[in-house]
Amino acid sequence: MTNDGKKPSHIKRGRVFYSFHPILGVLKRRRLHSTITSTEGTELIIDTESHIFWWARNHYTTGLSMIRHYTWHEHSSELFLAEMENAGVDMAFVISYDAEDVKWSSEQRGYALEDFAGGKKYTKKGCERDPKRLLWFSTIKNPDHYPSSKIVEADLKEGAKGIKVFPGFIQKALNHPELIESFRICSQHNAPVLISLEVLRPPLTLGLNEYVQQLGQVLDMFPKSKFCLLHAGCADPLTPKFEPISRLMDHHDNLYLSTAFPGEVWDDGSEYPFPNYLRRIEEIVKRVGTSRTMWGTDWPWFEWAFKYQQGVNAILRHAHFLSEDQKREFMGESAIRFLNGKS
Question: N or C: which end of the chain has fewer CB within 10 A?
Answer without folding.
Answer: N
